[in-house]
Model the fold of this input.
Amino acid sequence: MRRASHALIWAGLWFVFFGVPASAQYTGRRQGFWFGLGYGYASANASCDGCVSGSRVGGVGEFLTIGGTPSPQVLLGVTVDGWTHARQLMGNLVVSLYYYPHIKDGFYLEGGLGVSTYRLDTSPEVTGGGFGLTLALGYDVPIGRNASLSPRAAYSNGVVGDLSYVGATSPYRTGWKQDFLFIGLTLTSH
Done:
């Protein structure tokens, strides 16, 4: 219930700041600088050498993306997405390419490569970082002249390697791999 109320608050604020709803037909207006904020549900899983495989754990999924528009069908940007639950955080920072197969349609495919991180907020703190990948798809629904609300589904994967306590000389866990699935809404200003 709390997650749904946050999404409704975000949508209401977006309407207040970015204008009157657009016409029913998608205008295909994608140009210049853009940014987006996303919020939703995420389900995470992790594995490591010697770990007992666990089940997926639900949590909050959030992301921020910002970039430019080389063409009406291609957007290039940087995306930060993450999963949080209790005192754990999984995240990816990737360079993303958004591809719109049809200029006058809001459907897009997204792919990004970059870095992945894990953090457990304990004393001492457990951290690790490595290679990250994000794949997503979504659909932009215009809600104003330069704004859209987009349902988005994403898969983020990370090969973190070793997790260590801050200041420790030996690893806490080795062979750490993680992934999380995100389903939520994005508010984007084009």
